[in-house]
Amino acid sequence: MALRHYLLTGRINYMGKNFCRKYLSVIIVLFPLFISGCFVKDFGNTLTHSVKGDYYLSSKKYRAGQESFREEVRENPQSASANYYYGRFLLQNGKAKNSLKYFNKSCLINENKAEYYFWRAMAFADLGQNKNEAADYRRALKRDPRYLQALTYLGHNLFERKKYSEALPFYSRAIAIWPKSPVALYNRAFILKKLHRIPEEELAWQEYLRFHANGDLGKEATDNLNLLRNYSFRNYYLGARTVTVARIRWQPFSAVLTAEGLQSLQSIGEISSRMDGAVLQVVTYQKNNLSLAKQRALSIKRYLLKKFPALSRGKVKLSWFATPQYIKVRGRRLRIDESVNFFTTRD
User: Fold this and answer.
1) Where do the TPR repeat units fall (predicted)?
2) What gap in Å lies between CA 79 and CA 77, rounded to an integer?
3) pLDDT tens, position by position, 150-162
């Protein structure tokens, strides 16, 4: 629902360089057809409506946009673009039922515009008409198979209706277009979890976390990954904050941090160095090798003190053990034979 609200704010627009390039190319290609006065008028109206409509949407002047396009529809009742934008502003202003009349007309006048069907689907979504909503996303995709929002929202629609197997390919297609899509990546992993496709689920959580480790969903994704006994990402509790980072990794049989390990340690240091009155506790675990556990603890401390002077004067405390670490995730006790733990205490 949060993403639907985001789209309704009018953030999708075609202004700026892409807009100019798009319409300039159309003008050049279609110039020979401008002999038809009717064509010129229709094309000019569509161009004017797009510029004006996107301006009102991007500047969030929804009431003014509604008033302007009400007049446009009165003057040009057979204009698909006027009806479409009037529907957009009615929908934005909480009048989803009223907007359907104008979306219906825009789709009837010009049945080839994918975005007309997409926004009618959004009106159906607002009215709780899930089947009509899904049907219009499919109509939009028939006209534009790479329509990212339609792919994502059809995935949402099917996901909410627990049609997980049907939703999955639409999220996958959305990811193919936008590999960092947070909602598509997260929901793909969640669906694979629901379907008990464990090897794919594991890969999907890692892919989500590679781009979006921060925040509550990053924490949830890490818990799901850890429950699969994959500890490539870990949650650490620094004061009241949960910090999710890639696992601290080492060169084999050594206390030399890898590049990935250094990056994660950088994040831990940046956060803990800004915490007044806090002591960062570093605990290393190496099953049956106390010497290596100690060397790794000292290696972490040297790096932190070098990079973050604010952590000097007793702000970093070390412990090391020749045993596994045991963590609890959603009530389950999990064992990690080689691990680093971070947490904070007060002075």
Assistant:
1) 148-181
2) 6
3) 999 999 999 999 9
At 13, give phi and psi (nearest 5°). Answer: -150, 170
* pTM of the full structure: 0.84
Nearest of 299, 293, 291, 285 to residue 338 by alpha carbon: 285
123, 128, 133, 135 alpha-carbon torsion, rounded to 10°:
-140
Is residue 265 located within the same domain as residue 181?
no
Residue 242 CA to residue 218 CA, distance in Å, equals 10
Spatial contact of 62 and 56, defined as CB atoms under 8 Å apart: yes
Range of the domain at 306: 237-346
344: amino acid identity, one letter: T
* Close Cβ partners of 30 (under 8 Å, ≥ 6 residues apart): 43
Domain identity same for 196 and 250:
no
3-state secondary structure of 95: coil
